[in-house]
């Protein structure tokens, strides 16, 4: 069996999760929770949402294992939803979410990135082709693992990373990119 896809998916997933984690590192707690656009979500929520989504998809949906979120008891420790990861949540509830600290959220980001990338890199090409089911926005979706990683983690994750960059600009923080273009594209 080949593992050609594992390396590619591992790099893409790792890049977006690392960039999201990096993008919150220089913020204050107030900036993490700020809402500079009416009816928007905070930088903290956007980061948490993608980290939780990747954590849940790779650990629970793909492997039926407990996500890092549950293993570390963060829902209870932080007073946040145990199962929700942001999709379909009420905007008022999302805007009211508070994270205990920038470093705590960043630590969850690093731990999740390490665990998720290791799981992705351990998969073979056949595993990426297998169909899995997940409830997303109230609908049961059946997608291959590769499509789910590409659409929900990489593509959707980069959309939220872009939103984080816009919110940072509105807060006067400037963009935050750890790596810019990957070396193979420079």
Characterize the structure shown:
The model has no long low-confidence stretch (mean pLDDT 90). The protein has a two-stranded antiparallel sheet with strand order 1-2. By secondary structure, the protein is mainly α. The protein has helices spanning 4-24, 29-33, 43-63, 68-71, 74-78, 91-96, 102-121, 125-129, 145-170; strands spanning 131-136, 139-144. The protein has a single domain (13-185), classed as dinb family like domain (Four Helix Bundle (Hemerythrin (Met), subunit A), Up-down Bundle). The chain contains nine helices and two strands; from the N terminus they run H-H-H-H-H-H-H-H-E-E-H.
Class by SSE composition: mainly alpha
Please provide the ordered H/E string of secondary-structure elements.
HHHHHHHHEEH
CATH 4th-level superfamily: dinb family like domain
The domain tally reads 1
The total strand number stands at 2
Which percent range describes the beta-strand content? 5-15%
CATH architecture: Up-down Bundle
> How does the major sheet shape up?
2 strands, antiparallel
| Tally of DSSP helical segments | 9
Give the spatial strand order of the biggest sheet.
Answer: 1-2
Question: What would the CATH topology be?
Answer: Four Helix Bundle (Hemerythrin (Met), subunit A)
Rounded average pLDDT: 90
CATH class categorisation: Mainly Alpha
**Helicity range:** 55-70%
Cα shape: globular
Query: Which residues form runs of ≥5 with pLDDT under 50?
Result: none
* Span of the ends, CA to CA: 31 Å
Q: Rg to the nearest angstrom?
A: 16 Å
């Amino acid at each position: 069996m080949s593992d050609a896809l594992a390396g590619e998916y591992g790099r893409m997933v790792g890049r977006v999760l690392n960039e999201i984690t990096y993008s919150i590192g220089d913020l204050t707690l107030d900036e993490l929770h700020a809402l500079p656009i009416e009816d928007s979500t905070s930088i903290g929520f956007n980061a948490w949402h993608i980290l939780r989504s990747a954590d849940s998809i790779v650990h629970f949906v793909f492997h039926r294992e407990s996500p890092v979120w549950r293993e570390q008891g963060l829902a209870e420790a932080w007073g946040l939803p145990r199962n929700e990861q942001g999709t379909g949540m009420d905007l008022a509830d999302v805007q009211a979410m508070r994270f205990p600290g920038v470093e705590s959220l960043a630590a969850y980001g690093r731990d999740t990135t390490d665990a998720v990338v290791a799981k992705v890199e351990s998969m073979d090409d056949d595993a990426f082709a297998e169909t899995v089911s997940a409830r997303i926005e109230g609908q049961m979706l059946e997608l291959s693992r590769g499509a789910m990683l590409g659409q929900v983690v990489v593509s959707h994750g980069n959309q939220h990373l872009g939103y984080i960059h816009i919110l940072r600009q509105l807060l006067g923080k400037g963009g935050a990119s750890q790596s810019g273009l990957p070396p193979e594209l420079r």
